[in-house]
Amino acid sequence: MSFLAPLFFVALAALAIPVLIHLIQREKKQVVRFPSLMFVQRVPYKSVRRRRIHNWLLLMVRLTALALIVLAFSRPFLQRDDLNTAVGTGAREVVVLLDQSYSMAYGDHWDRARAAAQNVINTLGPDDRASVVLFSSGAEIALRSAAPGERQRLAAAITAAKPGAGATRYAPALKVAGSILADTSLPRREVVLISDFQRGGWRGEEGARLPEGTTVTPVAISGAAEAANVAVTGISLARSTFSNQERVAVTAVAVNRSMRSLRGGQLSLEFGGRSIQSKPLDVEANSSASVTFDPVTVAGTFMRGSVRAGDDALATDNVFHFVVSPVQPVRVIVVDRGGTGGGALYLNRALAIGDAPRFETVSRDQDALSDDDLRRASVVVLNDIAVPAALARRLQRFVEGGGGLFVAIGSRATWSQDVEILPAVLQAPVDRTRGDAARIGALEYGHPVFEPFRAPRSGDFAAARIYGYRTVMPAADAQVLARFDGGAPALLERRIGAGRVLLWASTLDLSWNDFPLKPVYLPFVHRAARHLASYSEPAPWLTVGQVLDTSVGAASQPVSGVVLTPSGRRVAVDEEGAEVLELTEQGFYEVRAQSGDTVNAVVASNVDTAESDLTAMDPKEIVAAATSGGPSGRQAGAAGLPPTPEVQERSQRLWWYVLFIGILLLGADTLISNRMSKA
Amino acid sequence: MSLLASHNPSAIPGARFMDPVVLARIGNLSLVARAVVDGFINGLHKAPYFGASVDFAEHRGYVPGDDIRRVDWRLWARTDRYYVKEYEAESNMNFSVLLDVSKSMDYGSIGITKLDYARMLTACLTNLVHHQRDRVGFIAFDEDVVEHVPPSAKHMETVLHVLDRIKPGRPGRLREPLHKLAEHFGRRGVLVVISDFYEDPETVVDAVTPLRFRGNDLIVFHVLDPAELDFGFSNASAFEDLESGEQMPVVPEAMRKEYISLVRAHVDALQQRFSEVRVDYALLDTSKPLDHALFRFLTGREKKLRLR
Fold this sequence. Notes:
The complex is a heterodimer of chains A (about 675) and B (about 300).
Chain A: E1 2-3, H1 16-29, E2 31-34, H2 50-73, E3 76-77, H3 80-85, E4 92-99, H4 109-122, E5 129-135, E6 139-146, H5 151-160, H6 170-183, E7 188-195, E8 214-220, E9 230-242, E10 245-256, E11 262-271, E12 274-283, E13 287-292, E14 296-297, E15 303-309, E16 319-324, E17 330-336, H7 345-352, E18 359-365, H8 371-376, E19 379-383, H9 389-400, E20 404-408, E21 424-431, E22 440-441, E23 468-474, E24 479-484, E25 489-496, E26 499-504, H10 521-533, E27 542-543, E28 547-549, E29 561-564, E30 570-573, E31 580-582, E32 587-593, E33 599-606, H11 619-627, H12 645-651, H13 654-678
Parallel strand pairs in A: 4-5, 4-7, 7-8, 17-18, 17-19, 19-20, 20-26, 27-33
Antiparallel strand pairs in A: 1-3, 5-6, 9-10, 10-13, 10-14, 11-12, 11-15, 15-16, 21-23, 22-24, 24-25, 25-26, 28-31, 29-30, 29-32, 32-33
Chain B: H1 20-26, H2 29-45, E1 54-61, H3 73-79, E2 83-89, E3 94-100, H4 114-131, E4 135-141, E5 145-152, H5 156-165, H6 175-184, E6 189-195, H7 201-208, E7 217-224, H8 226-230, E8 237-241, E9 247-250, H9 252-276, E10 280-285, H10 291-307
Parallel strand pairs in B: 3-4, 3-6, 6-7, 7-10
Antiparallel strand pairs in B: 1-2, 4-5, 8-9
């Protein structure tokens, strides 16, 4: 039974009026104070009581009539669903959501959480079904809707669970619980949410809504003795070269997220599991400190480093893993006339500068360019040469295999018509030595090459004077990245297979322009080479929950093989199927070849340090968001359509009968009182 | 209906009619007593019952200090001796009012309670007696003696003051306080008992008669409210006893006849028993003027004097 206008129940207070009148009359008007009842008491008692009983009858009739009229005005209507769920009986579908984020390893939290979960299982009724869902950043159903006979399996699932390395997220768990409850046919739905209710795990997510009528019971595991909780939240690597050896200095940041300051702690740097250095660590309450270790020589690839702070109540976040490898230089082949590099002086000088990345430049004559050169190189620069068809085909293969080709065209440059990989067809040169020189304008700042020059005063390309350039006819799929002031394309890009081709419509030396003398020349060359080589800084670490791309750290081609997780599990990764793997553990993942023990890559995986902030939230917030009544879809029929007006009217017609009975009672009241006053 | 319906105030020649309700509003007891009594005495001058207030008693020899105005000059003319005339005045009489101030007296259905009525009656009687230079005293009682003003010629003001101050509070009982008082009145005098006598006639008479033992004249005023006499209630209600607080539901229409007959039997029995022991008994209706009471008192006194 529900009500359309429950506010009318306020009018039930009017029921007090007849009762009050009755009481007042009895107290004030009906009591007569008389000097002595001496004679009154001697009068026989027979005719005295009758009237009061009748009063009671009258009062009850009037009260009932009033209550019925108020009930009618509040518009009662019946709902089928109510019949099932209103009664607090029937079998239950219980979903136990057990937080297994790594913060649950704090103190005795995990033991208490497991005990709470066991307690829920133990209190199940004979007809109840239960599910166990373990969640951290994602949710995993340990056992779905176990029948009454499977209590042992439920208990075993809880016993087998242990805190992982993930961070807390409530929304996925609630969604899983919602899907389990939506499928059930049992009348009562319950969710027991066992967690330490970290503030960081809830962002007021939408969509994490449970079916209507679900009861959510939060079990907060918290309140252990407050101890210092230090987390290593990040490191930075400063590379340097010392007597031809690459060295790296590690700076670690430690955060103390408790109310107690840490004194006399130790922060140690480990490589390959052995402690190399250790530094004292003092962190005030709710603050952070950074510690820089002495530089360490990078001895080989995939050096596994860890920064470790001492032990505390939450040990998981005390260690931070990273992988250091020697920097891989970008190999650039400059193909020049004669192979001396004389025509590419400015280019070579520009590429020789810089550490990140380091460019390894090789000059070759076009005839001396071997396949081996091409295999090792990332970028090939053609500096104003005539390219025959054979070379063009080799370069095509190179580009299609993922290489980058930079073509600078001056007066000598030609290109074989048979191979269509250039962004444009070369045409006649334009001489601007008389009159005003051409300038570069209209840059495509959104492109990675020009992106650093986007901000004002960060590079003036218009300062370069261009005395000669070649007109070109852009290909259909080429993109013009820069134009001369006359509108002719200056720089074009075209993607060929896995690689790219950049075409510069002038020279890279001083023969046709003074561009190499301008400050923007060096960054432009670097950006172009980086872009063509698809260079990206290898990440020293990933975070749990991120996806492991198996090509990470490998040369350039995807790897097929196995991934060895920190816990020693082997996961096969092949080219067809699961090329990606979600990181779920803390430590080092090894990517190995399918056969043999060759290590292709090592990836450090760290826990999400936001989780180490144990600040608790009010569980009611989650309960309210998950159970707040959405738009009432229940009234809709089975097909989800809104009911017709007739159906609505029929389900609400009850008020009319109630009102009718109330009015009848009022009439009866009049009759009774008339009869009584006559008597 | 009312037992006093036959007493028409206008039947008394010259009696000033004053509504006791109006008097009650005046509030000042002294003023009320004087107004009522003055009017009453004026009326008495024309009444046939006016008797000698002072009687000649004897002559005695003059002694220095006597007022020479009291010397009997005729006798001096005959005997050549100074004699002083002495009169037997009634002023050496003790007069006490015994007023019942129990809770049941605090009832009034017409704007004046029985106690107020009795107060004015007491004040009037006291005033009247004081005018005759008799000694006035006053006793208030309920289940015990509450106030006691011994008789004295100077106690008129005290009596009025005490009268004004008393408040009804406790349930009343006649026997204990009256028996106690009966031993107290050593000297002959006039005693007036004012009460509503809510006890058995036997008990009432048994309680009151000892007051007569030392030769006191005893006058009994039975004060009742008209509602107590004719039971003029209409609505069914719970009746609450003023003294005991006990409640009982009552339908007045159904029991009026029986009630009135019971009250009448009670009054008749009292009248009968009091006349047997030669005590003046008068039933007073608080809706009737005070003159009745005074008139009754004085005629009663007159009869007593004649009998003596």
